[in-house]
Automatic annotation (TrEMBL):
It comes from Pyrocoelia pectoralis. It catalyses: a ribonucleotidyl-ribonucleotide-RNA + H2O = a 3'-end ribonucleotide-RNA + a 5'-end 5'-phospho-ribonucleoside-RNA + H(+). Homodimer. This is Metallo-beta-lactamase domain-containing protein 1. One of its GO terms (biological process) is RNA 3'-end processing. Endoribonuclease that catalyzes the hydrolysis of histone-coding pre-mRNA 3'-end. Involved in histone pre-mRNA processing during the S-phase of the cell cycle, which is required for entering/progressing through S-phase. Cleaves histone pre-mRNA at a major and a minor cleavage site after the 5'-ACCCA-3' and the 5'-ACCCACA-3' sequence, respectively, and located downstream of the stem-loop. May require the presence of the HDE element located at the histone pre-RNA 3'-end to avoid non-specific cleavage.
Length: 200
């Protein structure tokens, strides 16, 4: 049974990535966490402001009430609408800021705890500053991973995540394995949420 301390996890927009003649057509998955704090993870491109604001309104959330904006890394399709959330603390990769104040935190050694149910951990690989948001609720542990996983298909075909770009394939593989070992659900950067099938 859920409590007021639980977080409701809503994927506002499911990300995608498709090769086209000019390059790539892509946008990231954008996720809303509603609980003791209001949190948005990965804010899509700078052209998505109106539809993101509208989507939040459908969930009775005003952009001025968002407490934390967390971007799993600094690529433009993950940070584009950060400007909408002027009252929030922003975590972009392993950088934390609020307005013009920047905070020092060692993500490599410690999780950044927002509260007992939400934390941010370092998962470098796709970029060396990548982070993952871990959310505990009645459904288990959900990992919002950005481009650590492109989509569920890259579990079977590693070319998918490697072709998307990786600053360190070795670190990315290590952190993919780490998340697969602890998570019940994964929300990837460019695909639908999926359940982790644990090998007994």
């Amino acid at each position: 049974m859920s409590t007021k301390q639980d977080y409701e996890i809503t994927v506002l927009f499911t990300g995608y990535s498709t090769q086209i003649e000019q390059g790539m057509l892509a946008n990231c998955t954008c996720t809303l966490l509603k609980g003791p704090k209001l949190i948005i993870v990965d804010t899509m491109t700078a052209w998505d402001g109106d539809r993101l604001t509208e989507a939040l309104g459908k969930h009775d959330v005003n952009r001025n009430d968002i407490d934390f904006v967390i971007c799993t890394h600094g690529h433009s399709d993950h940070i584009g609408c950060n400007y909408l959330f002027r009252n929030a603390h922003h975590i972009v990769g392993n950088c934390i800021s609020h307005k013009n104040t920047y905070y020092t935190f060692n993500f490599a050694d410690n999780p950044y705890k927002i509260d007992d149910n939400v934390s941010v951990i370092a998962t470098p690989g796709h970029t060396l500053q990548d982070v993952t948001v871990l959310v505990k609720n009645v459904n288990g542990l959900t990992a919002i991973v950005g481009d650590l996983f492109e989509n569920e298909k890259d579990l079977e075909d590693e070319r998918i995540w490697k072709d998307a770009g990786s600053d360190s394939e070795e670190l990315q593989l290590k952190n993919r394995e780490k998340i697969l070992a602890i998570a019940d659900w994964i929300i990837p950067g460019h695909g639908a949420k999926f359940k982790v099938n644990k090998i007994k």
